[in-house]
Amino acid sequence: MYHKDTSLNLHNLKTKEKILNKALKLFNSNGLENVTTRHIATELGISQGNLHYHYPNKNTLIKLLFNHFINEIKDSEQFKDGSFKEQIFINSIKTNYIIMQNYSFLFTDKEIVWRRIPEIKQDFFEFFESKKDKFNQLLALYKTEGLIRKQISDTQLNFLANQFIFTITSWLSSSDNITEDKLDYFIEFTARLILPYLEKSELNKWESLLTQN
Amino acid sequence: MYHKDTSLNLHNLKTKEKILNKALKLFNSNGLENVTTRHIATELGISQGNLHYHYPNKNTLIKLLFNHFINEIKDSEQFKDGSFKEQIFINSIKTNYIIMQNYSFLFTDKEIVWRRIPEIKQDFFEFFESKKDKFNQLLALYKTEGLIRKQISDTQLNFLANQFIFTITSWLSSSDNITEDKLDYFIEFTARLILPYLEKSELNKWESLLTQN
DNA sequence: GTCTATACAGCGATAGAC
DNA sequence: GTCTATCGCTGTATAGAC
Q: What is the structure's pLDDT at A8?
């Protein structure tokens, strides 16, 4: 799906792919600092030397996984139409959250990642900064369409965009004691940020959409 | 201040105290996974053996720092009067954030802490759960006093309390590119969560309070 | 209470045989 | 492409002299 590997050897590709998949799985479940190249190799039943033949070091694995994450998010954005009704807004959050959950270590362990590979911090920031711009455009659109309450200042509306990004980048490492349905909970949690900003008629539409789930 | 050490030797206490302070400083600045007992000892000009005489291991240092953090927060809550006008609300956030900033590694590296010492995760959660109860009480009070807009559902108001706790526990590891005045920015960021919930007259009071800074 | 010395495990990464 | 073997380093923690 997201493999643009140029290797000519198909047999080779399989192991290479397996290593990356296993690394992702272990990073997510055990924490980045607790997963070594040895663990990954052992779990796959291959030698550590073999792993290092395919990927010179642990940071390479992390960098590749980060790139895959960004590409998956960007791919998912291609299939949107231009409209932004409430259902589409919520679905868009859901799509993003599902992908993010697959790469959860990038968020729960982001400080470790950033300290190991400072470039990722920069890329991470730039990516979500562009997301924020999109939110601001969307909110401006909502405002001109009269969906946003008149009393809301531009300053406050800009803070809302910031709160969206803040929530999106932080929900995976939240201390909320939610184990199952964490995804559904945080989709609603995120969508509800905008509710008190909406005009009464809009509010009811969103409210019913969120409570029916 | 927060030292309830029962040691009888005053000379002893000084080194013990210095170790804990230095550990905190290094955890905050270098990241928990990058600070070893060797580093702490070297920075203080003492031997690693000496450090381990005072504290058997690194986890003990982390646990003690966590307890100190909790105690400092609880101490700061003693000096409140019963009222909750907007200025007091904002000051209360500020007091908490300053203490949190002094123990920033507990938040930026909370996943590492929790994986090392699972009890802390539990204590952390319980502490902020009780904070959430206080927020809910406060919001209920605001509601009966007519400060909260009538259209706001109880469900939505409960989400606001959750969003407060979420923000409080996540701001220190936010990916916002704010380096200086991060504290002031996030005090405003947090306070502004409640603004779209307020009745118009209240809104103006809060808005002017937040923009004057 | 503080030191030096050391044991021991685990890490990332490499060399060289097959 | 995959293996075994190994190096060098760093981490936690302990023992024993002073």
A: 46
CATH number of A63-211: 1.10.357.10
- B168 touches B128 (CB < 8 A): yes
Whole-angstrom distance, CA of residue B206 vs CA of residue B85: 10
User: Which region holds residue A145: left if phi is over 0, alpha if psi is between -120 and 50, else beta?
Assistant: alpha
B63 vs B198: CA distance, rounded Å? 40
Answer yes or no: is B34 CB < 7 A from strand D: yes
* A176-186 per-residue burial string, b: 16 or more CB within 10 A, e: under 16: beeeeebbeeb
Q: What is the pLDDT of residues B137-178, one digit of tens each?
A: 999 999 999 999 999 999 999 999 999 999 999 999 986 667
Single out the residue of B187, B199, B190, B126 nearest to residue B164, CA to CA: B190
Closest-CA residue of chain B to A201: B151
Distance of CA B85 to the CA centre of its chain: 22
Same topology, domains B1-56 and B70-211? Answer is no
Q: Residues in chain A whose beta carbon is closer than 8 A to a beta carbon of chain B?
A: 31, 33-34, 108-112, 115, 121, 124-125, 128-129, 149, 151-153, 155-156, 159, 162-163, 165-167, 169-171, 173-177, 188-189, 192-193, 195-197, 200, 203, 207, 211
CA distance A186 to chain B (A): 11
Type of residue numbered A77: E
Say which residue, B86 or B82, is predicted with more confidence.
Answer: B86
What number does CATH give the domain A1-56? 1.10.10.60
Q: Are the C-beta atoms of residues A188 and A210 closer than 8 Å to each other?
A: yes
Q: With respect to CATH, is domain B70-211 assigned 1.10.1200.10?
A: no
pLDDT tens digit sequence for B178-205: 767 899 999 999 999 999 999 998 998 9
What is the residue extent of each domain of chain B? 1-56, 70-211
Q: pTM surpassing 0.70?
A: yes
